[in-house]
Amino acid sequence: MNGAVPAPGPRPDSGTSTGTGTGSPFAVAAIDLGATSGRVMLGVVDHGRLELVPAHRFENRLVRRGGHLCWDLDALWAEITQGLADAHDLAVVRGLGRLSSIGVDSWAVDYGLVGPDAVGADGTPVPDSGERLGEVIAYRDSRTDGVADEFARKVSRERQFALTGIAQQPFNTIYQLLADDRLAELPAGSALLMVPDLIGYLLTGERRTELTNASTTGMLSVTAREWVPELLEAAGVDRALLAPLIAPGEQLGTVRPELASVLGIGEVPVIAVGSHDTASAVLAAPASPAAAVENAPVAYISSGTWSLIGLELAGAVPSGPALAAGFTNERGIDGTFRVLKNVAGMWLVSESIRQWEDEGAQVDLGDLLEAAASVPGGRFRIDPTDPAFLPPGQMADRVMAAARPVTGEQHGDHEDGPERRSAHPRSPAELVRCILESLAETYRDGLHTACRLAELPLPSRLHVVGGGSRNALLNQLTADALGIEVVAGPMEATALGNIAVQARALSAVPSHDGAIRELIRASVDLETFSPSSTRAPRASA
Question: What is the pLDDT, as a whole number, of residue 7?
Answer without folding.
Answer: 31
